[in-house]
Amino acid sequence: MGFIGSGYIGSTIARLAIEAGHQVVLSNSRGPETLADTVAELGPRASAATSGEAAAAGDIVVVTVPVKAFPDLPAVPLAGKTVIDTCNYGPERDGHIPELDGKSLTSSEHLLRYIPDAMVVKAFNNIFFKHLLSLARPAGAADRSYLPIAGDSAQAKAAVTEFVDSIGYGVVDAGPLADSWRQETGTPVWGTPYGPFSNEKGRPVDEDGIRAALATASR
Fold it and tell me: Which of 107, 166, 179, 204 has the fewest CB atoms within 10 Å distance of its CB?
């Protein structure tokens, strides 16, 4: 697993991945030396590298950066890779992007403009990082939670589903990237089903709960 961005969501996914037996290669915009403490905490299955090296190393690469950083992504090593897009657009942070403001594109479709040869799957963008950590359950658990994913490649969706399953979650297929707006910021499936941020443990959400939240989204 390669990681471009190692903030709250990225480092939480990395932690769950390591617990599930995956190797992770972390990167950020400040350089691998700034990740020394994180790597030491995560243990021997973790290492740090440049973003290009992390992209090249990962069978699956998690992109977890501000939308305004999309132009800086290493497109060449991401070509042909399954890329998990955890990113959420926020004009107050990212500046105004007309196609996103006008809703002619989803943020994942916007990402694809910068990494056109990657297979992008939207995932993990709708859950608070503390809930992501605390709600992971083994396969077969009665209180296992579900996460929506969206993407255009069946192959990439299958790879992401397998990964998500390995770290403790079921998956609801939310359709192609053009429909990924149904899980973007402010939609019914964004944050709310897993409980308020003030409840750090969160609450489990089954497949039907996620499907219902996706179905009630309006654009």
Answer: 166
Q: Give the Cα separation of 87 and 12 in Å (integer).
A: 14
Sheet of 170-173: strand order equals: 46-48, 24-27, 2-4, 60-63, 82-85, 119-122, 146-151, 170-173
Considering all CA atoms of the chain, what is the largest pairwise distance in Å, rounded to the nearest integer?
Answer: 45
pLDDT in tens, 10-56: 999 999 999 999 999 999 999 999 999 999 999 999 999 999 999 99
What is the C-alpha radius of gyration for the chain, rounded to an integer number of angstroms? 16
Strand 60-63 and strand 146-151: the pairing is: unpaired
Contact between 130 and 202 under an 8 Å Cβ cutoff? The reply is: yes
Question: What is the dihedral sign for C-alpha 124, 74, 66, 35?
Answer: positive
Per-residue b/e over 91-118, b at no fewer than 16 CB within 10 Å?
Answer: eeebeebeebeeeebbbbbbbbebbeeb
Strand extents, DSSP E, 2-143: 2-4, 24-27, 46-48, 60-63, 82-85, 119-122
Owner of token pair 């950020």: 28
pLDDT digits (tens, 9 = 90+) for 127-180: 999 999 999 999 999 999 999 999 999 999 999 999 999 999 999 999 999 999
Q: How far is CA 210 from the centre of its chain?
A: 16
pTM score above 0.85: yes
